[in-house]
Automatic annotation (TrEMBL):
Species of provenance: Senegalimassilia faecalis
A UniProt-annotated Pfam family: HTH_1
PANTHER family: DNA-BINDING TRANSCRIPTIONAL DUAL REGULATOR MODE, TRANSCRIPTIONAL REGULATOR MODE
Top-rank taxon, per record: Bacteria
GO MF terms held by the record: DNA-binding transcription factor activity
Coiled coil location: none
Protein name: LysR family transcriptional regulator
HTH lysR-type domain sequence ranges: 37-87
Amino acid sequence: MSKLTRLKPIIRLSVGNPETDSNSVFGRGIASLCLGVRETGSLNAAAKGMGMAYSKAWRIIKDTEAALDVQLLYRNGAHGSQLTEDCERILEAYQAIESDLQAEAERRFQEALKR
């Protein structure tokens, strides 16, 4: 078996707002942060779980919200945070598309190696 068959393509999906000049997009990092908020109910806990400072997580959320013109989190001070309905929908679509693209890329990569 060729060592090449162990290799896999890595798909990096981003969702952006074409009506803005911002470089902030909804990608793997913000998706992971949002999943952490969903699991823990806290942006601070999600940030710590990713080895990230709360201030950096806060800035990433704010920048992404501004770029997308979509509120991602409901923040309730000491009571934590939760994902907005819009964020849940973006996250669900993002995960589904990323999974489909990854599976297709892996299939096509293995097919191309056989040529």
